[in-house]
Design brief:
Number of strands: 3
Family: Belongs to the iron/manganese superoxide dismutase family.
Keywords: Metal-binding, Oxidoreductase
Catalytic activity: 2 superoxide + 2 H(+) = H2O2 + O2
Enzyme class: oxidoreductase
Number of helices: 8
Helix content: 40-55%
Strand order of the largest sheet: 2-1-3
GO molecular function: superoxide dismutase activity
């Protein structure tokens, strides 16, 4: 991932009515773009301009450089999030991710309930993550603001953005309805591609 706004992996109207084109205009076209532009300005004429985003995130986190961390992490988080969605997504998980959800949560339905509950109850702004720890176990990780499992040495598998700008145009303050819609477009193939081999 570089310091540029990535192309969406689908058209802005591909996820209607779960996520509208207008939401993508603001969420992707303005919010994500702003994080990218801020990151460019913060790293301009420095060695960080040629440094990978994950490395910047970890260094900024270690150095407690909040401004740099927030913009780099939000760029990474959003770029990852767009791939967690697919017009061909939804339904039941397939492949290794399904096996791990059975093992670590007692099945997809139990995982879905726990993840939805976590995303609903996360106060204020943040992200609900499905991550894989160093032992290969899947965990649901709620994180505030721009935080990411990368700083905890965990591998992100899926995420759901529950900042208000992710859903307010389409759902106003009804975050639970947005979360319900997520399950209709969740990209299980992407989740499978993120799993580490030590499962």
């Amino acid at each position: 991932m570089n310091h540029e706004l990535p192309q969406l992996p689908y058209s802005k109207n591909a996820l209607n009515p779960i996520i509208s084109e207008e939401t993508f205009d603001y969420h992707y076209g303005k919010h994500h773009a702003t994080y990218v532009n801020n990151l460019k300005n913060l790293t301009k004429d420095t060695v960080l301009n040629e440094t990978g985003i994950e490395e910047i995130i970890l260094k900024a986190y270690q150095d407690k450089n909040t401004i740099l961390f927030n913009n780099a992490a939000q760029h990474w988080n959003h770029s990852f999030f767009w791939h967690c969605l697919s017009p061909d997504g939804g339904s039941s998980p397939r492949g290794p991710i399904n096996e791990l959800l059975d093992r670590d949560f007692g099945g997809f339905d139990k995982f879905k309930d726990q993840f939805s509950d976590t995303a609903t109850k996360l106060f204020g702004c943040g992200w609900a993550w499905l991550a894989q720890n160093e032992t290969g176990t899947l965990e649901i990780v709620p994180m505030k603001d721009a935080h990411t499992p990368l700083t905890e040495g965990k591998k992100p598998i899926l995420t759901l953005d529950v900042w208000e700008h992710a859903y307010y145009i389409d759902y106003r303050n009804a975050r639970p309805r947005f979360i319900e819609g997520f399950w209709e477009v969740v990209n299980w193939e992407f989740a499978n591609s993120n799993l580490t081999s030590n499962k």
